[in-house]
Structure formats: structure tokens, C-alpha cells
Amino acid sequence: MTDLPKAEKEINNTNVSYSYSTDINQLEEENRILKETINHLKNELSRLQKAPLLVCEVKDFVEDGVLIRLPNGNEFLVNMMKNAGKILPGDTVLAEQKNLTVIKKIPLSKKFNVEKFVIIEKPTITWNEIGGLAEQIQEIQEVIELPLKKPELFVKVGIQPPKGILLYGPPGTGKTLLAKAVASSTNATFIELVGSELVQKFIGEGSKLVKEVFELAKEKAPAIIFIDELDAIAAKRIEIGTSGEREVQRTFMQLLAEIEGFKPLGNVKVIGCTNRKDILDPAIIRPGRLDRLIYVPLPDKEGLKSIFKIHTKNMTLDKDVDINKLAKKMEDFSGAEVKAVCTEAGYFAIRKNKTKVNMDDLIDAVDKVKNAEKDEGYLDMFG
């Protein structure tokens, strides 16, 4: 017979040896993982401690090096590493921060997602919703609407319509409404760009954005590009000083170039808008650019009455409302202020738990608008 105690002892020794070997393997695996983790953390720490690289644009190559432009507009002549690869003027590159040595090219897209930075819409405003501007409406219809709807007429007559127009006048007189109405009447895409935002948000990139806005307009044609606060980028040029002034200059020159490249009978039109025509650079309003100037004044008495009727057409007015008396009291009001009066009068009626707006409500509203601080924030609520 087999010696059972001896066999059991051998089995136990085998189990102990196997368990010991397994523990060693597990410890070695854990040690390997810990070493890899430590190396990874060291590499990550080393990467985070490196000085950041600058993103620059290559302007040109000269014998002594590379001419680059920084995002703030400053230009420098620098060296380039031998293994930087093939780089051409206009490429975006990374440069070492201390001495600006060009390290390598990076494949950054030069295109904005431009639709994020402009307002694009299909307006529904009709000419009937604009009061007191009959002459201005007629002129815009002749200059913008007719060439878009019936270009063959201009070909037969042998004349070229303006490429764009400039709407100027006091704030709140309906310049934006006119632009949206002509876009609606021609079923054109309305692309709105604000000059002051262009200057503030896109230092170093304004000219590229302008170029791509015009490309977008061609893709979505028929289209109307509406540039609000045009004076922010098209003011009279002065001696260039700061990098900000140089950027405004580049943006302005790009705008002129884009307008120059348009065909007069093309299906994209440009409408500029400003409250300060007196400070505009003559280059923007010379023949061949925004050469049709349309003044949008404060409404006269009849204009005030017309605007008042438009904004009260859905309101319930009491029989005591005297529109002539109100028009006299609202003398020198803009269209936006008339709209504000109608809205405020409605609030006065609601506070009194009434469903009709009477003459007292309207007079109180006129006084409130007159006495209100005439800042942009207040009038912007009423268009």
C-alpha cells in the first residue's frame, strides 16, 4: 500500500511552491505597472513644464531667415529649424517663445466657422411695416430690389446699378428695418455683421473673417450683407500706430477689396449702416463701392402718425386717443422711441388692470420715454 501521510506531504509542498510562485508573478506584474505609471507621470510632468509655443503666420522668406507675423500684428525676422519641413508663405507655424525660432508647420484651418460669428436669417418684414420713409423705400427698391429681381432691364438700358448703399442718420430711425425689408422682398439671405464686434473680437483675424463673410454670401445668394456700425472699421485713416489700429486698417482694406471684386449685376448686395457718416473714409463711398448714400432722418409729423399706427394696430385703443396731439407731443422722436411709447402705454394699462389703452396712458408713456436715460440699452429693447 501507498504511504498516505508521505503523499499528502508532497502534495502540500507542491501547493506551497505553486502559491509562492503565483505571489511572485503577481508582485512582478504590479511592479511593472507601477513603473510604467511612474514613467508616464514623469513624461506628463516634463511636458507640462515645457514653455508654450507661439502660433505665427509666415509672411515671407529672406536670405537671413523667415519673416513671421504674431497674432498681435507685430512682425519679426527669425531663424527656422532645419527639420521644420516644407513651409511656404501663408502657412501657420509654431515658434519657440524666447527667440521665436520656427519649429514646425501646423495644419490649422484658415477658415472660420463663419456662421457662428454673423447673424444669418430670412427676414419677414414687409414694406408696409415701415412708416414715414416713403422716399427712402423707393430709392432702396430702385437700387437694391430692382437689380436683384430684374437685372435684364439694366442690361437693355446699358447701365450698371450700384454695388451697395450706405444708410446713415440718427439712431433708431429704421435703417436696419429698411435693410431687412429689402432682403424679404427679394427673398435674399440677410447676413448681418457688426463693425464694432469685428474690431473687438477678432484682433489679427478680422480681414480673414470679412473675406469669408463675402464667400458665404456668394454661396447663399441671393444675399444682402448688412454691415452695422460701419464707422468702426471704415473711419478716416490716420497715421498707423498701435497693433489694434493696424488690424482695423487691414480689415478695412479687405472690405474694400471684396466690394471691388463684386459684379454690379451680381446677386449679392452690400448695405452699410452708420450714425456717423462724417467720420467715414472717402474710399468706402467713392463710385464703385457704397456710392449711393441714403439719409434716414427722424420722422416728421406725418411719419410719426404712420409709425404710431403700425405699432398700435394690434392694440386696443380707447376712443379718447388723439393721434394728432400725440404726434405733436412726440416731436423729434425716432421710430424706436415711438415703439417704446406704445409698449410703455400698454404696461400702464396693465398696471391699472385695464384692457384698453387711453390717452392718459399714452401721455404718461411719452413723458417716461422723454425722461428716460437715452442710452443704447433702453432703446435696444424696442428695436
Description:
The protein has 383 residues and is of the alpha/beta class. Helices cover 46% and strands 15% of the residues. It is built from 13 helices and eleven strands. The chain has helices at 4-49, 134-149, 151-157, 175-185, 195-201, 206-219, 231-234, 243-260, 301-311, 323-329, 335-351, 359-371, 376-380; strands spanning 54-62, 65-69, 75-78, 92-95, 102-105, 119-121, 164-168, 189-194, 223-228, 268-274, 292-295. Strand 1 (54-62) and strand 2 (65-69) form a beta hairpin. 30% of the residues are buried.
Please outline the helices and strands:
Layout: H1 4-49, E1 54-62, E2 65-69, E3 75-78, E4 92-95, E5 102-105, E6 119-121, H2 134-149, H3 151-157, E7 164-168, H4 175-185, E8 189-194, H5 195-201, H6 206-219, E9 223-228, H7 231-234, H8 243-260, E10 268-274, E11 292-295, H9 301-311, H10 323-329, H11 335-351, H12 359-371, H13 376-380
Parallel strand pairs: 7-10, 7-11, 8-9, 9-10
Antiparallel strand pairs: 1-2, 1-4, 2-3, 4-5, 6-8
In short:
The chain has 383 residues and is α/β, with parallel strands linked by helices. It contains 13 helices and 11 strands.
